[in-house]
């Protein structure tokens, strides 16, 4: 779509944006040793933020709405070590989040232990990551009994399934931590009714556990939401902020358990994954029906989007992306965006409603509690992998300069 000059500009911007990824290979040690360089980069970035206050809790003006944001700089490692000096962080579950959060906590020097079912997939993976059975790797019950902060990072379906066994072990003085509001918010469906005499907090990284780990290793930090469900000690919020930093967050945004789970379920079904996949498929299919080749249909639907245009939106916003493309492309895109918005808004309203009523929760619990959920999921992934669009995509990716 873009003119040659614009394409060149887009390519060079995309190249610049790709550079931080190359730095992902740095070790944790080199990331830490370059902390001061990172800090000064963060500080110079901060000059562009509408901050009222730099250090400490700050109020940031988000498009006219003032919100409180907490940052990692307020919790240097020494302060974290002191704050949690009497705690054992028992991280239950070692999937995507367990892996990322657990390794970051360990690298931060905190007393963290892992609790998973013995001889499951996670048990093996934890050992591969250097967790030692009997030292800092236990079965879930043993880890919970040793822990003061119980970080429930089982899959949401497993949180519901194991709750009858976990609840009696959550005695007064412990803290219960989640990375999703799912279990307590939908307690009538999940059965997760938290004991009334413990703090219950949330740190929800806005990204996969792999990203939590990668950004930490780069000396950066993921954005996370924090919330308090129950504050018995008067320290629940402070604990959530400290844990948010300890697991590798850069900035922490306040929310409630309910708002976190509603927005998260909605977003992942919409623009983050479900909606965007649906748009890709619809656009690709029409191009193919009109006689375009698979490579042309893929390039015009996915490759240009993910490799060139979306990174520009991420870096500088929609107006910047529009400004960087040809006048022809821009005119049509601005006009058609209105039609897409009008057409899709009712779909998004249905989706939000389905989240709010618990329909999405029910479906998720039913599917993910099936004994054969891994096999059923793999079957669906194979169906997606085998779609022509994604087979064409594999061939297109193979021709990228870095893959040839
Ligand atoms: N993944 C993300 O991108 C993401 C992002 C933000 C927040 N979260 C939230 O973080 C939490 C953890 O999510 P996740 O994606 O890391 O989970 P996950 O990858 O699905 O991890 C599953 C863990 O649960 C264990 N498990 C599954 N079924 C079990 C059962 N019946 N009994 C005991 N253990 C069982 C697995 O152990 P085995 O290996 O033994 O099966 C594994 O350790 C969830 O609340 C999720 O909503 C996730």
UniProtKB/TrEMBL annotation:
Kindly list the cofactors needed: Mg(2+)
Q: How is the cofactor bound?
A: Binds 2 magnesium ions per subunit.
User: Which of this chain's residues are annotated to bind Mg(2+) 2?
Assistant: 264, 300, 304
Gene Ontology terms: cellular component: mitochondrial matrix
What does it catalyze? (2R,3R)-2,3-dihydroxy-3-methylpentanoate + NADP(+) = (S)-2-ethyl-2-hydroxy-3-oxobutanoate + NADPH + H(+); (2R)-2,3-dihydroxy-3-methylbutanoate + NADP(+) = (2S)-2-acetolactate + NADPH + H(+)
Cite a single GO BP annotation: isoleucine biosynthetic process
Top-tier EC class = oxidoreductase
User: Where does the chain bind substrate?
Assistant: 326
Where, subcellularly, is it found? Mitochondrion
Task: Give the residue ranges for region: Disordered.
Answer: 1-21
Provide the KARI N-terminal Rossmann domain boundaries.
65-255
Pfam families referenced in this protein's UniProt entry, alphabetically: KARI_C, KARI_N
Q: Which family does it belong to?
A: Belongs to the ketol-acid reductoisomerase family.
Stated name of the protein = Ketol-acid reductoisomerase, mitochondrial
Recorded source organism is: Viridothelium virens
